[in-house]
Amino acid sequence: MINKQDKKLFDLINKELTRQQDGLEMIASENYVSENVLRVMGSILTNKYSEGYPGKRYYGGNKYIDEIENLAKNYAKKLFGVTHINVQPYSGSPANQAVYFALCKPGDKIMGMNLLYGGHLTHGWKVNFSGKHYESIQYTTDKNGFLDYDSIENLVKKEKPKLIFVGTTAYSRIIDFERLAKIAHDSNAFLVADIAHIAGLVVAGIHPSPVGYTDVITTTTHKTLRGPRGAMIMCNGEQLNPTRKIDSVIGWRESKQNIPTLIDRAVFPGLQGGPHNHTTAGIAQALFEADTDEFKKYAKQIVKNAQKLSQELSNNGLKIITGGTDNHLILIDVTTFNITGSQAEKSLELAGITVNKNAIPFDTRSPFDPSGIRIGTPALTTRGMKELEMTQIAQLIVKALKNHNDEKILKNIKSEVKKICKKFPIYKKVKY
Ligand code: DSN
Predict the structure, then answer these.
(1) For a substitution probing ligand 1, which of 26, 27, 29, 171 has the most ligand atoms within 8 Å of its CB?
(2) Which residue ranges form the domains of the chain, and what is each CATH number?
(3) What's the pLDDT tens digit per position in 262-299?
(4) Is the beta carbon of 169 within 6 A of some atom in ligand 1?
(5) Is the pLDDT of residue 260 over 70?
(6) C-beta atoms surrounding 259 within 10 Å
(7) Ligand 1 binding pocket includes 92 (Cβ within 6 Å)
(8) pLDDT value of position 237
(9) What DSSP character marks residue 268?
(10) What are all long-range contacts of 258-264, with beta carbons under 8 Å and residues at least 24 apart?
(11) Which residues have a catalytic role annotated?
(12) Ligand 1 atom 3, closest CA
């Protein structure tokens, strides 16, 4: 199947496959898709152009593409319990960009969680389009790292933003969408939930769903949801609170449109061209897989594993931000071990454990070398690892951090890691 010219590239892919197999993937936003999702992603669907939406395309030959996109949409509607869904955003940032584009004008006041406290770039960070094209107000956590709903409420009342993003990339606790919806809607602001990190937990009923509370929901499809790299935007067709005057929030030009139409128009033709049909099909496959008892069990185990890991790391002297976790991730202050986030990331990589450095709330260090690391359990749980492995892995992480300068010890840990990984193969048939 592979000729000589392809060899260099395919060798590299096989090396990456081995890296993924032999190491502990603990980046909280990563996962291993099923072999069927892989198959769909590598399919002939990538050959087709299909600007527009099912039944309204700008190119011919879209009979089956329409059926595939409708399949993905129907699966998502059922799984999340929403009435409207757009499965075309290329990834999380474009999805969020589409929401701003649909509901705001340049210069409007928006609000989101500060990146350095666990938010996301697209929630109004100063170097991102969301912080440059809109007047961005940022909220933070309290001193212990928890969302501070009272202070968010005061800030919303004072600033009166048009749109508020709630969603996190490094927050380990339950988000109270109901409370935030009240805060936003009392001030006539749109509330958008970005559930990229927790989507798999939401569909499994382990984290409360924002559906019914927030005006719009965005999510990537490749984190806890365990699909291909892509994104979705969801909403309900009706105004959530009949006493709110959405027309006056959106402005006179769009007042005849509703939010779903505005979102669809923002994605295409507002921002994107042809949808990536192989990704749409991969999303359909992942959603199909997520609508099973097996997936619910998987999602429960992700949290059990994170809680076990957190407990073990804490027992070994590491400082866990907020003192624990309710979801798939743990944020750790590594400076108590006299190392920085970067040093921790590097030494763990040498030990075969992949994590990322991360700022912690009220970090006194720079984001390029912050005080923390973020670790997660979705990928390890996909491999079938459970509490027993979490205990072993916690020991290895602590040993690596304590011996971050000792290459020999890190190398030994790497072979321990490989032994654990061997028992939990990621793919049986995949080879390039
Ligand atoms: N890059 C994602 C993460 O790691 O959380 C956010 O976009």
Answers:
(1) 29
(2) 18-29+301-423 (3.90.1150.10), 48-290 (3.40.640.10)
(3) 899 999 999 999 999 999 999 999 999 999 999 999 99
(4) yes
(5) yes
(6) 24
(7) yes
(8) 67
(9) I
(10) 259/84, 259/102, 259/103, 259/215, 259/216, 259/235, 260/83, 260/84, 260/235, 262/102, 262/103, 263/84, 263/86, 263/98, 263/99, 263/102, 263/216, 263/233, 263/235, 264/53, 264/86
(11) 49, 51, 194, 220, 223, 229
(12) 29
Contact by Cβ (8 Å): 280, 87: yes
Tell whether ligand 1 has an atom less than 6 A from the beta carbon of residue 128: no
Euclidean distance between CA atoms 236 and 238, whole angstroms: 6
Residue nearest to atom 1 of ligand 1 (CA): 29
Residues 316, 205: Cα–Cα separation, whole Å: 31
d(C-alpha 190, C-alpha 165), whole Å: 8
Dig out the tokens for 67 from the structure: 């059926």
DSSP state of 267: I
Peptide bond into 269 cis (omega under 30): yes
Q: How far apart are CA 150 and CA 183, in angstroms?
A: 9
Question: What pTM does this model have?
Answer: 0.96
SS3 of residue 43 by DSSP: coil
For residue 220, the CA-to-ligand 1 centroid distance in Å is 9
Q: Whose CA is nearest to atom 5 of ligand 1?
A: 169
Q: How far apart are CA 100 and CA 266, in angstroms?
A: 9
Helix (H) or strand (E) holding 238: none
Share of the chain above pLDDT 90, in %: 91
